[in-house]
């Protein structure tokens, strides 16, 4: 569309010029006209001021009380929620903690025991039994996480698998140490902490995908 | 929005959809001021704007699981804000009608958006615009949405968004020149 220099473009055209929406040729024609026509230049400047004025209207701050009203009703995840997959995992964890408690305190697990300090061999057996229970709990959690289709992101999956592999490597090392020194309390505490870390990590993942 | 920004937004939405409070708060912080500014201009009342924004966030948070990641959150969310404002305005109109039927002298005056930031002439001119023009003008010039986003937000064509924007500015200039 040709804009002759003696034609005054309507506001809509000037507005489109302001946003750079006109073709190059049209824009040149309008600019030539604006250079010559005081009244059109004035209208153009008024439109530009108007655009700035509207932009400034966006500078308001939402009051904090809006979030305070939203927060109690927002669908925030609870830190621990009992669901179907937790039951076998929880049972296995309880058993693991019982066995580890025995190995630390030195009491025999069998009913009717005489309360004497457990032998290194019995303590090692307790740790091994606790490990079996822990591994059972971890397997349940890992199966619940890996089976969750909500975790589509391969990057996230890889990150989690790497974190789990690091924990597994440390567990393996500690188990070797404990085979040589079954009464090493520090190594047992580290082992428990590692198992717990793995359980926590998997629990968070399953909870995140279970919503 | 860059690809990295888009990926960050996707991650944030995924976390928020799983109920991560920090992610929900982060989404709120990113969009609350613009949403409030929009609601304030559309409803012309601080109380209504707060109600609209609060309601819009709760609706959005509860529906995050079904949010399509290929769309921008802001486009989807502003649509909810605009719809909530429409609902509130309709409700207010009904209330006003009821009040008019009663004795107006006995009723307290309503809050019509005492906004210290708004230039009175600009606000008055905005109020005289047809609703469709006002929405496009605010989404474009105040919130910085492009015509594609406005078209998605308001459910109109891109060409309509452009044409309404230019008509809205022309009308505003005319009103303010009077």
The unreliable regions of chain B are: 106-117
Strand content of chain A: under 5%
Strand content of chain B: under 5%
CATH superfamily of the largest domain in chain B: RNA polymerase sigma factor, region 2, helix turn helix motif
| Secondary-structure arrangement, i.e. CATH architecture of the largest domain in chain B | Orthogonal Bundle
Number of strands of chain B: 0
The number of E-state strands of chain A comes to 0
Structure characterization notes:
The complex is a heterodimer of chains A (211) and B (178). Chain A has 211 residues and is mainly alpha-helical. Chain A folds into two domains: 11-57, no CATH class; 86-209, no CATH class. Chain A has eight helices and no strands. Chain A has helices at 11-18, 24-36, 38-57, 65-70, 86-105, 120-146, 154-180, 185-209. In chain A, α1 packs across α3. Chain A is rod-shaped, with a radius of gyration of 35 Å. Chain B has two domains: 1-102, Rna Polymerase Sigma Factor, Chain: A; 114-178, Orthogonal Bundle (Arc Repressor Mutant, subunit A), CATH 1.10.10. Chain B has helices at 3-17, 21-43, 46-62, 73-101, 120-128, 131-142, 147-154, 158-177. With 178 residues, chain B is mostly helical. In chain B, α2 packs across α4 (73-101) and α7 (147-154) packs across α8. The chains are: A mainly alpha (211), B mainly alpha (178). The A-B interface holds A 10-13, 15-16, 18-19, 21, 43, 46-47, 50-51, 53-63, 65-67, 69-70, 73-78, 150, 153, 208-209, 211 and B 14, 17-21, 24-25, 28, 32-37, 40-41, 50, 53-54, 57-58, 61-62, 65, 115, 117-119, 122, 137-138, 141-144, 162-163, 165-167, 169-170, 172-174, 176-177.
Give me the secondary-structure topology.
The complex is a heterodimer of chains A (211) and B (178).
Chain A: H1 11-18, H2 24-36, H3 38-57, H4 65-70, H5 86-105, H6 120-146, H7 154-180, H8 185-209
Chain B: H1 3-17, H2 21-43, H3 46-62, H4 73-101, H5 120-128, H6 131-142, H7 147-154, H8 158-177
Helix pairs in contact in B: 1-2, 2-3, 2-4, 2-6, 3-4, 4-7, 6-8, 7-8
């Amino acid at each position: 569309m040709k804009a002759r220099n003696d034609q005054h473009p309507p506001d809509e055209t000037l507005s489109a010029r302001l946003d750079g929406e006109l073709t190059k040729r049209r824009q040149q024609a309008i600019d030539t006209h604006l250079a010559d026509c005081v009244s059109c230049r004035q209208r153009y400047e008024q439109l530009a001021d108007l655009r700035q004025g509207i932009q400034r209207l966006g500078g308001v701050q939402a009051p904090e009380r809006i979030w305070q009203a939203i927060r109690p009703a927002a669908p925030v995840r609870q830190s621990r929620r009992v669901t179907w997959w937790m039951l076998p995992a929880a049972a296995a964890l309880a058993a693991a903690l019982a066995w580890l408690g025995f190995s630390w305190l030195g009491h025999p697990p069998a009913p009717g025991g005489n309360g004497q300090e457990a032998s290194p061999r019995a303590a090692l057996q307790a740790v091994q039994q606790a490990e079996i229970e822990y591994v059972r709990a971890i397997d349940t959690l890992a199966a619940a996480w890996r089976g969750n289709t909500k975790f589509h992101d391969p990057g996230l999956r890889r990150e989690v698998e790497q974190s789990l592999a690091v924990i597994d490597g440390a567990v393996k090392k500690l188990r070797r140490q404990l085979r040589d020194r079954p009464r090493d309390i520090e190594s047992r505490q580290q082992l428990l902490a590692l198992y717990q870390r793995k359980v926590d990590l998997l629990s968070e993942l399953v909870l995140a995908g279970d919503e | 929005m860059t690809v990295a920004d888009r990926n960050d937004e996707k991650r944030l939405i995924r976390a928020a959809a799983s109920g991560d409070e920090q992610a929900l708060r982060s989404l709120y912080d990113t969009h609350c001021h613009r949403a409030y500014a929009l609601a304030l201009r559309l409803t012309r009342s601080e109380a209504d704007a707060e109600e609209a924004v609060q309601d819009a966030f709760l609706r959005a948070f509860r529906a995050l699981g079904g949010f399509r990641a290929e769309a921008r959150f802001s486009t989807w969310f502003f649509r909810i804000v605009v719809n909530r404002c429409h609902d509130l305005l309709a409700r207010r109109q009904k209330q006003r009608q009821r009040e008019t039927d009663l004795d107006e002298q006995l009723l307290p005056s309503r809050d019509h958006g005492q906004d210290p930031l708004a230039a009175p002439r600009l606000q008055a001119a905005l109020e005289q615009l047809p609703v469709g023009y006002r929405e496009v003008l605010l989404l474009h010039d105040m919130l910085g949405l492009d015509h594609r986003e406005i078209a998605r937000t308001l459910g109109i064509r891109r060409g309509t968004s452009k044409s309404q924007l230019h008509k809205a500015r022309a009308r505003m200039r005319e009103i303010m020149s009077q």
